């Protein structure tokens, strides 16, 4: 079966920028108190209840941070280049090449899932089955944490991290993401929208936390 063009485009773009992306964003969490606060809250809620997937993990910067908070966490990314970078940066953690649209995980096998700016390259009309897949792998009581740019438009990226690339990114309305979670059978526990900060952010940023009932 031929994969959608946006999936191929996303993989190629992140393979191209993997090393420069990893270097440029290596210490980004150090300057992101909001991000650290949300991730720490997620880690406290999930606790030691089971494995956690960092889905769309890139070079593993959040995977490593979540591991430092005591979670049993592994990473999955579409880009083999990103997975290689993650394995080099965090040799003690597990990283796999895979797709959020078809996870290699049993139903109800994860205590938590993080989709941190990893839903943003899927066209909004294609997101419902992706969120349903994230809900599928959560155990009852498990939690999904998402982060994304706020808006309602597509942006085409032709240059990033020192490379020429071709990649679409979508800004998403928080209500839309909440509705996707509800349609997948999740309960939305919290959402937060903040103003942009630092050189990388051009729009408000949102975090949304949802729980699988049970």
UniProtKB/TrEMBL annotation:
Q: Kindly give the Gene3D superfamilies that the UniProt entry links to this protein.
A: Vaccinia Virus protein VP39
The record ties this protein, via SUPFAM superfamilies, to:
S-adenosyl-L-methionine-dependent methyltransferases
Q: Name one GO molecular function term.
A: methyltransferase activity
User: Which InterPro entries does this chain map to?
Assistant: Methyltransf_25 (IPR041698), Methyltransf_Superfamily (IPR050508), SAM-dependent_MTases_sf (IPR029063)
PANTHER family, from UniProt?
METHYLTRANSFERASE, METHYLTRANSFERASE TYPE 11 DOMAIN-CONTAINING PROTEIN
Q: What is this protein called?
A: Methyltransferase
GO terms (BP aspect): methylation
Cited CDD domains: AdoMet_MTases (cd02440)
Keyword Nucleotide-binding, does the record have it?
no
